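Limitations

Structures in this collection are predictions, not experimental determinations, and the ligand pose is part of the prediction. Treat each record accordingly. The example that follows, with zinc ion as the small molecule, is included so readers can see exactly what is and is not provided: the inputs are given verbatim, and the output is the predicted complex.
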Amino acid sequence: MRVLGHEPILEFLPRARAQAFLFTGPEGVGRRTVARWYAAGLNCPQGFPPCGRCASCRLEPHPDYLEVAPQGETRSGRRSRQPQIRLEQIAPREEGEEVSLLEWLTTHPRYRAKVAAIDGAHLLSEPAANALLKVLEEPPSFARLVLIAPSRAQVLPTLASRCLEVAFAPLPEALLRTLSQDPEVLAYAEGSVGRLRFALEQPAAFNRLTDRTQGVLEAMGRGPAQTLEALGLLLEHEEALPYLARRLGQVLPVESPAYRQALEAIQKAQEALGAYVGEELVRTWLALKLAPR
Ligand SMILES: [Zn+2]
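Predicted complex:
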């Protein structure tokens, strides 16, 4: 199992005595991969770094590793733009059909330690966060909990205070360049190996995203109607608005008020979509903000 970069963290984790960690850092930088690596090392008879060849290292999925992630679908099956970790993923409920974290922790590990990664600790529903707090207060001795979030500030203080924070930095471009030399791919990745993999593994989707982003940037100079049309195609992609924000500097001077206003408008639009405001409405509003004349 290969982890790209983060050497100081890989040195530190095997020695850490904590049972609960908070992995912070940008999306796609390798926080989940390191959580899996940590679980593998704890359960490998050779210890750290995990050998990758023994019976435990080769198990996939590993019975002593659990990932809890926000679910994009509401219970009625509707796709939500604001995914959440729900209570039944943490604590058992009568009609719950999936195994919750609490149930999973009631049995002993097959090897040495059970590691649970709560990927999206900033997206826990309130009841789910309260249930998780109980686990953090008194975890079984064989358990390690890894909360994953963009930053400590976005996690409830009661949860964060029970975890040892491990901060992940964006990967240096020189390291990403060992995987791709394409300048457009590297500019898109911006230190994220997850984004880099998306660009390399789904070239058609990546090209659509970059073309459509370019389309919006060009339409901004032509007027709101053209911008509205260009945004319609772009918003099909989940990463669309954050990527558009990162490329604004191509058409507006970074120090200008216009740049700041456009950046703010994109952030507000992203929040509005997360709060279930209709896409049509958000798109129209954003088009007027991005192309005011
Ligand atoms: Zn091994």
